[in-house]
Amino acid sequence: MSSASQVIIDVDTKLGQPILAPYWFAVQTRPRHEKKVHTKLVNEGITSFLPVVKQVRRWSDRRVEVEFPLFSCYVFVRIVPLPGKRVSVLRTSGVISFVGIQGQGIPIPDSQIEDLRSLVTHNVPMDPYPFLKVGQKVRIRGGCMDGIEGVLVARDGERKLVVSIDTIQKSLVVSIRGYDVEPV
Fold this sequence. Notes:
Elements: E1 8-11, E2 18-20, E3 23-29, H1 34-43, E4 47-49, E5 52-58, E6 63-69, E7 74-79, H2 83-90, E8 95-98, H3 110-121, E9 137-141, E10 149-155, E11 158-165, E12 170-175, E13 180-183
Antiparallel strand pairs: 1-2, 3-7, 3-8, 4-7, 5-6, 9-10, 9-13, 10-11, 11-12
């Protein structure tokens, strides 16, 4: 992020220098290092967030509730986007890089992190799900439309599936509310 796109939230009255706003960034970690990275970042005074879900795991002699990262290989950090702050995160053992163009990181809107925090805090049952973008080709799983493929669209705030017959250049749209879809 260039200094021109950084948000100045105040000016330090003693030094006369701008104070930049902190942003959330995703950091990629080595596999199975999320908890260690989160702990190390917090111990270094860096605001870190690791969303976890509890799952019951069965061993031959017992059942245990275990916490797993919601997003494998990712931890979120809130820092001011300055080179020194980035370096302190990148020097943390287990961190691979910031997620974004050329490892610089792309700021994540506060609202997305707060929504995620709210879901985790309230123990809402959830599981990871493939990221689906509007315009992506998907396949319906389950129900009377099982196996039907089309393009995911959004209309009036509702997800719909466009099914096309290429030869005659005709399409139709169906609501997919209540259906599971997967990327093709």
